[in-house]
Design goal:
The structure is a homodimer. Chain A has about 230 residues and is of the alpha/beta class. Chain A has two domains: about 5-125, Response regulator (Rossmann fold); about 130-225, Winged helix-like DNA-binding domain superfamily/Winged helix DNA-binding domain (Arc Repressor Mutant, subunit A), CATH 1.10.10.10. The first copy, chain A, has eight helices and twelve strands. In chain A, strands 2-1-3-4-5 form a five-stranded parallel β-sheet, sandwiched between helices. In chain A, a hairpin with a 4-residue loop joins β7 (about 140) and β8 (about 145-150). In chain A, α6 (about 160-170) packs across α7. Chain A is elongated, with a radius of gyration of 23 Å. Chains A and B meet through α4 of A and α1 and α5 of B. Chain A binds a DNA duplex (30 and 30 nucleotides) through α6 and α8.
Amino acid sequence: MSSLKILVVEDEDAIRGMLIMVLQQAGFFPTAAKDAEEAQNIIHDNPPDLILLDWMLPGISGVEWARRLKKEPIYSDLPIILLTARGEEEDKVRGLEIGADDYMTKPFSPKELVARIHAVLRRSGKILGQAQICLGDLILDIDQHRLIIGDRQLEVSPTEFRLMHFFMTHPDKVYTRTQLLDQVWGRSVYIEERTIDVHIRRLRKILEEYGRDDLVQTVRGFGYRFSMVD
Amino acid sequence: MSSLKILVVEDEDAIRGMLIMVLQQAGFFPTAAKDAEEAQNIIHDNPPDLILLDWMLPGISGVEWARRLKKEPIYSDLPIILLTARGEEEDKVRGLEIGADDYMTKPFSPKELVARIHAVLRRSGKILGQAQICLGDLILDIDQHRLIIGDRQLEVSPTEFRLMHFFMTHPDKVYTRTQLLDQVWGRSVYIEERTIDVHIRRLRKILEEYGRDDLVQTVRGFGYRFSMVD
DNA sequence: AGGGCTTATTACCTTTTTATGACAAACTTC
DNA sequence: GAAGTTTGTCATAAAAAGGTAATAAGCCCT
């Protein structure tokens, strides 16, 4: 699942801006509101997958608004993370009479925020990886961790599986070795670009037995492409 | 089984009230106590099927009381879910051998609470599912704690049984060691991940005699999978 | 055709991951 | 409370995977 929308409801410009920045960086699609009223409109027009809500808001307080939201059946499943200043309210928040799914005390690190968002989204089932990815007669089953062609199962190593996963979710497009390294191995790993060649080779060898080694195509001077079309 | 009784032990009125509300809504029959002493009486007069216990209590702390309870043979099977505030204690909960079956960090969503209660009840056998679970020629007899293959029946140890139970009710999907630990042993126990390997080994050894050790499959880099398919 | 560059292929070695047997503590059972 | 189970941990063996370098093969241009 991609394009997870997060609504930030926060009256202080600086904090709101910072939050939006952080969220974008983390791959979310943030929208923002200054108060409950504005937020209400956004929710109506373009319901987000999660709300980051300031405890104190001008007009209707964040808590109050959250409570109302949770009562409406349409929105009751919408996860809410409360943002509070450190202080006396902390105890009350813990009481969770509000129905918030989590809370954070300012100031917090971007890292922690993103981590909590992920946790809440996962808990509420918003992050559902597709169970299966099909492409022609290729099936990559994430849950079962299996790669199947037709009715036969292929034996692939962890890295081969990840590579295949990336290819199948990004078909028909050329990727440089560096891009593949970043996407499949992760930005923080440092290995030779040429190593990619070897892994491509290994993938092809496996696919070869099924006459499908033509799926992994070399684009001379650029990199590799995975495609059902020649 | 209907009319599952749940005892809430929590000193803060607001939270206690909220919990009771949530539990009723979810179809349980909650009773409540403000402290360990009160709880002790209730347990004696009208033993519940599960206890929701606050970590911090006036007088005897929740943890201390839980520990004592677990030592009494009569109550040792009574599942306990600990409620803790987020903070330093969190780590301790996992580490310390309290004997709780699960724990939750406030604040939590009602949904999650109910889900965990169900999970714990199921694990501890309070919720009767099917009496038998069949998969191919495998039959797992819940009541008798027996595994039947074809026409022969064999005894398995408690842990092996639970592991087998989990596998047979969740076939074809890969689980990491951590997931298995959480699901089969419970979230609050702390044992080495590698211990899973040993239990897998033991399961396989049993199945081996019937030529069925291929049911438990290793998925390198991820974990294990139980499947009738290769 | 040949030089220069890019990719393919293979072999090798290191690291990582899993399997297995043994042991001791904890727990049951009689 | 003694004998037998059960279960978690460790040490070690075994297996698989992953990265690199060396060499072969291929492509493109003049």
